[in-house]
Structures are given as structure tokens and as C-alpha cells.
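[job 4471] stage=fold_predict status=RUNNING
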Amino acid sequence: MSGVSSLSHCKVSLLLALVLASTNSLSSQQSDGHQQFGGSQRDWMRRVRIAAWPLGPDNAKQIVQQAQASGVYGIEVDNDIPGRYESLLDPAEKLAAIHSAAIESHRAGNKAFVYIAGLECISKNSDGPHTLFKDHPDWLQRKITGEPAIFNSGAAFWIAKGEEDVWVSPYAADWRKVYMQRVRQIAATGIDGIYVDIPYWMTHFTGWEDSWASFDDSTVEAFRKDTGLDARKDIKLGNPDDPGFRKWVEFRFKTIDDFLRDIRRNATAANPNISIIPEIYPGIEDAAPRVGADVYRLYPLVDAIAHEYEFGEGEDHTAASRSPFDWFMYQIGMRSFRAFAGNKPTWILNYSWDGAQHVQPRDAMLNLAMSELTAGGNVWDAQGHVMSGSNDLPTRTEIYSWIGKHEDIFGAIRVPVGETGVYFSDATRNLYPTEFVNSYRGVLLLLLQNHIQFQIVTPRTLGQFRGKVLVLPSVRVVSQEEVAGLHRYASQGGKVVVTGTADKQLVSLHGATRLSDSREVKYLSRAEKDFFASDPASDPDLLKAIGTSTGVEVRASKNVVVHEARVGNRVYLFFANFDGLQAGVMATPVVQHDIEVTVPLKFGARLHWLPFMGSETVMDGQSSPEGLRFSIPNLDRGAVAWLTSTSK
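[job 4471] inference complete, writing C-alpha cells
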């Protein structure tokens, strides 16, 4: 790459020699820490309680001290080498700082991971003679009209006045070669993880949303080699029925998949124990195909995903501005991520409060942490809408300390329990997102409000699903492999329920129940319009068609979420209470009284009750015709319950 001097090369080479020597020493020092979490080199990732700090040349020790004092386990340090043009050219100083962060965090028994940009790069002085765009205009992503992806401070809050922000094509070969070299150098510092920020096609800044970029020469040529099509002439952008557009959507996904796969391959070549964590903001909605980063596809390729997943109609999209309906949709999103992840961890980077006048930061922070823990995510709540800081440090310290005391629960692998499966079709979502997502959410909302346990089934897990009912919510695009899997499921006695507009192959499945009137979408619409007035028993026929029981029955408000799961050999129930919350007005839920839990005797005769931020109590059940009944005195924000025998 032009611009990398021989002096810079020597500095980097010398630094790496020192780093590699100390990394070998660190490997032996850390072995005991890895063993305490079951021996896996990456088990720490399921137990993180994250906070972030800007990393400078000499503040690594201070960062780690602050993390230790506030209950943080899993330290993000912001030191972006490839995302800043100056350090892309000369990374020596930043590599030394990353090495210091690794040394200090490991000395304290903590873990650290470093932020890098994906395809974005900022040059400090846009008026200077050398910026990335001025030096390499052919590297940039472009609209179909040829407009390059170059921006100033008006485009995003993280671009400072006088800076040049560009988005690079992943097919810019010279840039990619240097980028991967920097990845290897970062990995060699001994840092525990590389956090790759939004590796996207540029479709999320104003004016680029419907561009379906990029149409730069190198990308267009790669598409031609892959498909034989000219991306500028042979596809009808945004038309899901156009074969060329379908190939373009798949090509863009595959490109981002390969980019992250390449990052992981290069990083682990330098440090086999390092982890790769992309930050992705699209969840289950239509933003995924636009930006080309799909969390369903990415989980098998990386070690965890950090979801910058916001939901709600409030102006700032924070927890303080979230309605009960929003909270339920948030639960659906997070449960979906957990289904995509398998045994890999799901990190949630979200924002509790950003100035809401009628909500206290503490209340918003408690609601956010409780909701994420209930769904099985790891908590990362920053100040305002940035990655670092906290809206109230004492509250964060209190929350993180409590999570740390109970990491045997919240850091463990959960196996969802439910005889009803709900199918997530990523292929349908990519092409018909509104129709599919509304149907999918409608089914899950009905199940949640009726406390019917479910599993989210995907094309990857279809062959392992053994539940009694499988719901296909407006699934319009299926592969022949999926159709074969559904036939096997039905032939083995599974009941298939097909809703909404569906692929004709699904309608003809043996014994399939057809619900073509979109009842679940109407249910969702009623709940969105007036959540508290909606009746979860308003469609008994739909409920009868899709509902099943695990043997555990919960009698509680429709505004309480209950997730049943197995952790080890025990049955756990994770409760979240959203009753009485009002967006931007009330962030303290109405306390729930007289909740009843009925379980088969084989699950255990004693119920352990751990309120969110509280202490564990134990209660005995009362005999009933259905098994054992437990009466829960009250539920504040959330709680965890689990069952044991009387001897334990």
C-alpha cells in the first residue's frame, strides 16, 4: 500500500516481536482462568457484563481499575486502527496501547476486546492533501448513479467537523490486503477479542437507504463473475420477484459473510484464542437485506454478535421511551437472536435513557437489564447513544454486581422448552419482510401473552425439532431441503400450521392446518393499537391451533413474559413484568400479586425464587390434580425461578 514508510514497518515489526513473546507468556498465565469456566477458551464470552472506554497510549491501567471497581467483566476499548486513515497507514502507537490493555486486563483477571471499524474509514483532515478518498477514490462504494460513499459531519454524530468519512468496497483488493494485515497485528497483541463495527453496504445514511449499493467497478465485476449478470443493467432493484434482484440480495449477503470469515481466519492465524464479535443493528426486520448483514447467517461464522438492537416508536428509541408493546417486540427479537446463536452468546448493546424528562435513569436502566437477562442476552448499557460511560454509574455497578453473583444462571447455556415451534424463514424475510415479520410477531405475541412456551425453529434446526406443533407464519420462500425436512416432520406425527400467504408446497404438506385469513397479523395490529385493551384469548381458534403445553402452567397477567428453559438438568422460569409501563412517562411496572405456577411432581417439589436485584427464597408447593402448585407473593420487575427436590 502506498504511504506505509519503511520506518513505520520497522516499528510495527519490532512491536510485534515483543508482543508475540509476551502473548506466549500470557497463554500460560491465563490457563487457570479459562479452566474455571469449564475449560473452553471462549466461555468468558457468555458471562460478560460490558462497559467501554476510549483507549489512549497510557490509560490502560486506569481503564481496568475502573472496570474492576464497577463490576465490569468484558472491557471494550475504543482504539480503531483500520477505521482511521492515519492509523491504517501507521498502526504502531495504537498496537502498543492494545497490548497494554491486554496485559492489564489479564493481570486483573478480566477480559478485553478492541473496537475496529468494518468498511468505514475516517480521515482526520478532509482539506489536507491526503485522505483515503483523495489517495484511493477507486476503493469507495458507490450508488448505481456513480456517487461515491463519502460524507462529512452532517451525516452522523461520530464524524467530527473537518473529517472525511468514506465507506470502502469489500472488493477493493489493495485495501483489503492491508486491512487483514492490521487484523493479524491486532490479534498478535494478546487482546481477547476484535469487535467489528457495522460491516455493512452503505445503505443507512440519509439518501442511501434505497440504493442497494454498492455499484463500484470492483463489486460489479465480482457479481458478473459470480452470476454472469451486469448489476447496473440486469437487475430490478427492490423487486422481490425479479431473479436478478434475488441474486443481488444473496450476493451482498455472501460478500459480508466472506468478509467476516476472512477477518476471523486472519485473526486466529495470529492468535488461535481470539474471538471475533461483529456489531450488527438490524435484527429480524427488513434492514438486514438492505445493509447485507444478517445475524441469522453470521452466527455460525463468528464467536458472538453484539446486537445494537433498538425497538420502539419513541423519538430516542431508548428503554425510557418503550411501551409495553415495544417491550414484547424486543423480547421476540432477542429470543430470535438466541435461537440463531445456538450455544454462542448474544451481547445486547442498547441504551436505557437519553434525557427523558419524566423517567429516572435508574428505572430505565433496571428495566433494560431485566428484559435482556430474561431473554438470555448479555448486558451492555451505555450513556446516551454512545458506546462508553453510563447514565448512572452507581446503578450500573449495582446491576453488574448482582449479575456477577448469579452468573451460574445468567452465564449458563439455556435450552428453550416448548412443544410449539415457530419457524423463522430468513429467505422469506429477505424478500417479503413486512408480511413475514408481522405474521411471525403476531404468532409469538399470542403465545407470549398466553404463557405458552415455544421454540423458534430455523432452517438450521428444523431437523432437530421434536415438538408437537410447528407454525409456518407467511413463509413464502423455501428451499427443497426445507420442504423435505417439513415432510419428514409431518410424517413423524408433527402438526404443521400454515398461516397467511404461503408457498404452495407448504399448503400441500400432509395433514397441514391452513389458516389463510392472517388472524395473527390482525391480533398484532390490535395489540399495537391498544396493548392494554387487547385480549390474548380473543382468538380461541387460533390459540387452539397453535397452542400446546410443556406441563408447566403459569397463571399471570398477559403483560408478564415467562420463558421456560432447561439449564443443566433443572427447569427454570424467567419472568419479566411490563404491566403498567408507559413510554416516556412511567418506568416502574405495577407489582404483580398471586401468580401461580403449577408443575408436574417430577420437576421438583421446591421452588427457588430469585427476584431481579434481590435475594433467593425457597417455597414448597401444594398438591393439586395437575401436580404441585406454587403461589408467588409478588413480582416486581423480574425474577428467576427454578425447581429442585426437597433434599436439595
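[job 4471] summary: The CA atoms of residues 115 and 195 lie 5 Å apart.
[job 4471] exit 0
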